[in-house]
Amino acid sequence: MMLDIKGVIFNKSSLGQVLASRRSLFLQRPLSSQAKPRAMDNSNSSSSTSSAANPKVHRLQQLISHHEYSPSGGWEKSWEEGVTPWDIGRPTPVVVHLRQTGALPFGNALVPGCGSGHDVVAMACPERRVVGIDIAEFAIKKAKESFSSLPNANYFTFLKADFFTWRPNELFDLIFDYTFFCAIEPEMRSAWARKIDEMLKPHGELITLMFPVSDHVGGPPYKAAVSDYEEVLHPCGFEAISIVDNDLAIKPRMGNEKLGRWKRSQKSLL
Ligand SMILES: C[S@@+](CC[C@H](N)C(=O)[O-])C[C@H]1O[C@@H](n2cnc3c(N)ncnc32)[C@H](O)[C@@H]1O
Questions:
Q1: Could you tell me the distance, in angstroms and rounded to a whole number, from the CA of residue 269 to the centre of ligand 1?
Q2: Averaged over 63-84, what is the pLDDT?
């Protein structure tokens, strides 16, 4: 089974073959021979069953591959071209639920790879100041334009920054990752975990909305199974305090998302 970035199931035969690497993903037939791009909102993606039905994901993968030596190049291009198939155009429902039920830590929060910034804005309040960073200038400009006049605008900031090299002035009480882990090259995941470790306060919490929880090959989105997180977070001293299915996932992602909450183990804090 393969998943596209909106959680749509590809069956292997529709791809022609199981692809062994990201590079081989780009050996699929050219975009021009695929179905016309469709809007990527919730309403249209649940019925898609093949990669041809989702040319935006294919285009994203092309852009990232073509700019593989430039950390921001492919993402910038995808934003410029409007190839943002991950973007649901509103806050992630489970984020809203966690905020409304008082289940999100207060203090300083970070959303790496924040994209258009809906989750940043949804979490921001006087008790929780949120920084959203994204490597794409276009995304940050869009987020600022969309949200800077909102009543809670004093409680969030958008910054263009590369997660891996950014040096924040303060540590965070909360880091929330959704579709950032699956966007980066799997080889970068250990560095992702070390950076989380570097930026989180000793008793801070990492919340990962894990997607796509699957065993597919290639990306982005790369597979993001629980074991993929454990593999890089355990060596940094993190352990899961809870991992549950996300019952509030949007329809096309339902069954392929898990909400993970992580803290440093007591042992690692000694
Ligand atoms: C799949 S999108 C997810 C956006 C957002 N989290 C959402 O759920 O809508 C991944 C985002 O990460 C950004 N990104 C990729 N590499 C990055 C990096 N090294 N540092 C910061 N942002 C990065 C991309 O520009 C893109 O906006």
A1: 30
A2: 89
The mean of the pLDDT values for the chain is: 84
pTM: 0.85
Ligand 1 cavity residues, CB under 6 Å: 71, 75, 86-87, 112-115, 133-136, 139, 162-164, 178-180, 183-184
The span from the CA of 107 to the CA of 93, in Å, is: 21
- Closest ligand 1 atom to residue 184 Cα is 16
Best mutation site among 80, 180, 196 for ligand 1 pocket (most ligand atoms within 8 Å of CB): 180
Residues 6+ apart with CB under 8 A from 18: 12, 217
Q: Phi/psi of residue 76, each to 5°?
A: -60, -45
Do 242 and 226 form a contact (C-beta atoms < 8 A)? no
pLDDT one-digit tens code per residue, 164-194: 999 999 999 999 999 999 999 999 999 999 9
Q: What is the pLDDT of residue 24?
A: 25
The residue whose CA is least distant from atom 6 of ligand 1 is 114
Atom of ligand 1 nearest to the CA of 78: 25
